[in-house]
């Protein structure tokens, strides 16, 4: 597991957010304490945090190592630096994005907007531009493009497909595993499959893309974790950063970050294929205008 960038709020805190579903129950309680108030955890001793979370001190150490650190002292340093970086950049503490039960609707709207803006900024700062350029080149020259995404990621897939079709590409959205493998069984070299999964572990996305890779189809992954199963099998991995603000009930900030990556790709394709894209957009605008 790569070591998080301790100078970035997303590098450590968002990685913990991403790992939350895969943690053991005791480790998850530590993670939730970190996500609720990173600055407070940075000030706590290991025994104080362990007592507050109802776990043992060795559990806190194991959690620290699970997120790629050498131990609890490094976790405290990383959280302190992340909190300081966030406050210096936005003037807000990292807890500014945490929605509480007593918050007013205005507070909730402000915190969600802050989390969304933060996700886009962190995604841009963490983006591997070489990977983005390579993905743009691959998609620009694709004969057929399938975009695989399930549930909330399926909505992002639909957005990417709709724009690619307006650009003049032969693109299809696959939001069902059976439909995805049926389509990919007919693909080959020259085609591209894009997989979208926040965790990078969703089997209904990973397995169709594994099939694509075995057939020599180029694979582009959009995920929060480049070391995930999806990231490992892709030719080009585009990662994003997000921290969910509201009780982690659903993919809010991650959805915005995924859309940002999609727009980075589309902007690159539009510039690389300026004339054919402009012609296709003109034709589709005129077609819509006649309705």
How many distinct folded domains? Answer: 2
The sequence of SSEs as H and E is HHHHHHHHEHEHEHEHEHH
CATH topology-level name of the largest domain: Rossmann fold
| Main sheet overview | 5 strands, parallel
Can you identify the CATH superfamily of the largest domain?
Answer: Glucose-6-phosphate isomerase like protein, domain 1
The tally of strands reads 5
Question: How many helices does DSSP assign?
Answer: 14
Protein name: MurR/RpiR family transcriptional regulator
Organism: Tessaracoccus lubricantis
Domain HTH rpiR-type: 10-86
Keywords: DNA-binding, Transcription, Transcription regulation
How would you characterize the overall build of this protein?
The protein has 291 residues and is α/β, with parallel strands linked by helices. The protein has 2 domains: 9-93, Arc Repressor Mutant, subunit A; 129-289, Rossmann fold. Helices cover 60% and strands 8% of the residues. Strands 2-1-3-4-5 form a 5-stranded parallel β-sheet, sandwiched between helices. Strand 4, helix 12 (229-233) and strand 5 form a beta-alpha-beta unit. The longest helix is centred in the middle third of the chain and has 22 residues, at 105-126. It starts with 8 loop residues before the first helix and ends with a helix. The model is unreliable at 1-7 and 246-250 (pLDDT under 50). This is MurR/RpiR family transcriptional regulator. Residues 10-86 form the HTH rpiR-type domain. Keywords: DNA-binding, Transcription, Transcription regulation. Pfam families: HTH_6, SIS. Residues 135-275 form the SIS domain.
């Amino acid at each position: 597991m790569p070591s998080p960038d301790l100078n970035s709020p997303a590098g450590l805190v968002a990685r913990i957010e991403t790992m939350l579903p895969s943690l053991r129950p005791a480790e998850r309680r530590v993670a939730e304490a970190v996500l609720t108030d990173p600055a407070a955890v940075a000030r706590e001793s290991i025994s104080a945090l362990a007592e507050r979370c109802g776990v043992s001190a060795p559990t806190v150490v194991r959690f620290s190592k699970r997120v790629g650190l050498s131990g609890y002292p490094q976790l405290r340093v990383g959280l302190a630096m992340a909190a300081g970086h966030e406050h210096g950049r936005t003037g807000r503490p990292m807890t500014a994005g945490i929605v509480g039960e007593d918050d007013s609707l205005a507070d909730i709207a402000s915190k969600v907007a802050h989390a969304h803006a933060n996700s886009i900024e962190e995604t841009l700062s963490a983006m591997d531009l070489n990977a983005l350029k390579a993905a743009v080149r691959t998609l620009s020259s694709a004969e057929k493009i399938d975009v695989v995404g399930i549930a909330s990621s399926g909505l992002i897939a639909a957005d990417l497909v709709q724009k690619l079709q307006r650009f003049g590409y032969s693109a299809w959205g696959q939001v069902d595993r059976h439909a995805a493998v049926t389509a990919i069984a007919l693909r080959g070299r020259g085609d591209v499959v894009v997989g979208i999964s926040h965790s990078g572990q969703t089997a209904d996305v990973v397995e169709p893309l594994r099939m694509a890779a075995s057939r020599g189809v180029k694979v582009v992954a959009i995920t929060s974790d480049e070391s995930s199963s999806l990231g490992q099998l892709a030719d080009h991995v585009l990662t994003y950063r997000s921290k969910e603000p509201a009780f982690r009930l659903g993919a809010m900030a991650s959805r915005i970050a995924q859309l940002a990556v999609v727009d980075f790709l589309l902007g690159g394709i539009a510039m690389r294929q300026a004339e054919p894209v402009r012609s296709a957009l003109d034709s589709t605008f005129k077609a819509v205008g006649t309705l």
